[in-house]
Amino acid sequence: MSRSRADRPGLCFVGPLAGQKFGYVVTQAVRLSAHFREAGYSVTAVSASPNRYVRLLDIVSTLIRERRRTEIVILHVYSGPSFVVEDIASWIARRNGHRIIMLLHGGALPEFMQAYPRWTSRVIRRADAIVAPSAFLAREIRKRGLTCRIIPNVIDISQYPYRHRPSVKPRLFWMRTFHPIYNPLMAIRVAAQIRKTHPDVHLAMGGQDKGMEREVKRFADDQGMRGAVTFPGFLDMAGKIREGGAADIFINTSHIDNMPVAVVEACAMGIPVVSTSVGGVPDLLTEGQSGLLTPDGDTDAMVAAIRRLCGDPGLAARLSENGRRLAERSAWERVRVEWEDLFASLVSRQADSGLQVS
User: Can you list the domains of the chain with their CATH numbers?
Assistant: First the structure.
């Protein structure tokens, strides 16, 4: 049951919010802040700037300006240069006396913590609560002697029309960012090999360009795949439904991953998923039940899995049905209860006396 308006703490979501604009990936910071605002919470969300330096200034000024109406800061934590932002934001939030929830993201975070153990430990220990969307990141945090809750990434399940797929054809769908960590060239290689046995293969590749889209298009032409591969560009919700509705198999070729929302979205639409078995993906998908898993970068293995799927209607039907059930675990109605339980526990107890400003 949701909490009464009087019991709802003031929330401040700190993370990348550029996804509020067309052409940028919609992050969990965007989704969660919008959902809680619609649920009647007092919500501040920062920052929508795609520029890291402008975003930092926006975050600092907002945390200071909104300190009196904020009780809980939900800080979205990523690896790499953005961790500087998270260091500064968490220090300010602690100085303001706010409760801090750190929501961890990204399959590269474990390697980052290993490379910078003292820095990451100092920052993460400022949190009153740590949340991860997958068992993968939760295990990494627990190895460091910290407690971590698992709350799945959220999607609005009602927006994704489900189509049961009792049999499939090689109509492939890839939807990530055109960046090396998502290995988009592998998707072209897979489609080119599939074409040898299935001349009717089609691959749609949608997503935000991070410098590789032109190279991928050239590679598709070099592989003789012009016409068999289409590039619908960045996909908003209508685009996802259009491309997903036309597809029979979702392929995820990432080198690094955590709990990819794109995979959950495909499952929600009933599209059987074939994915590289990296990061948190094996915690998300169960081999042969809710997806097919192949080794990182192994084109031949992914091709074999797709051919197996095309020839086994029972397998396709099982993955389609179980995928929808998997996605339903990320429905807002379920995830909201877990977040509100966490808010209640933070508001009702005194801040941990061992937490110090550092």
Answer: 5-154+331-348 (3.40.50.2000), 157-328 (3.40.50.2000)
